[in-house]
Fold this sequence. Notes:
Structural class: mainly alpha
CATH superfamily of the largest domain: Cytochrome c-like domain
Strand content: under 5%
CATH topology of the largest domain: Cytochrome Bc1 Complex, Chain D, domain 2
Number of domains: 3
Low-confidence stretches: 40-48, 65-75
Radius of gyration: 26 Å
Helix content: 40-55%
Amino acid sequence: MWRRPIPAEQAALDRPWRVWASTVVGVFALVSVALGFLIVPWSEDPDFSAFAVICRAIGIPGYDGQSTAAGEPTISRPTGVAWTKDVRISLAGADITRGAEIAAEICAACHGETGISIDPTYPSLAGQPVAALYKQLQDYRSGARQSEIMAPMAQALEEGQVADVSAFYALQARTSGEGATGGVGPDIVELVEIGDPARAIPPCSSCHEAGGAGPVDTPDLIRQRPQYLHQQLVAFAEGTRTNDAFGRMRGIAELLTPHELRRLADYYGGQPEH
């Protein structure tokens, strides 16, 4: 196809723009490479280290734990639970009888024979989604969630036993609520049911009640121990608990006031099931 030749004068005028455009693109590419592979990986802030994130994603050893040496940056270890076909099959085929035996032998002293905790600082496990129970036990096993008491208990269990005891407690009935639901105030009820769009806080009920739209491993907070709930909300807000995938709970909890953290725990502790 014939095209009219570009006049020499126009070609001469276009040439500087092409040079400048090529230069800008080249500089942008060099800056991107420098940020991605040089500057960002040198950052001492683990949350800003793309290099560490990439290494964790592909399973390179040394980037999935927390450094305890003085002066070294720590890399928070997120949950390592993946909801694969094998995990789902394991939970579906769990041995409830064996789970009851494990619960009586190892768990009952703190969490009760039927999952109603003895101490208000320990969570009641009865009636929790099986996936939520399984995830927390696996996080204790991997070190994603820290506890001087729970970590050795969970690490003593084999993979199949984790599924068995999770399935057993998931089938147990919860007791009536014990929190001060009636006195939490309309602001707390609004946080639960509507959230606070101005602070980018979603409604708690969207994930933490039966039938919520949260991840499969989301715990149901209704009729949980208020003291335990408050402890965990504060831990998320302060960043001392870090096994929430993608930092979901940390991001929400740090936006809440101390009053809201306390009263949300009271609200869920006293709520009857719908």
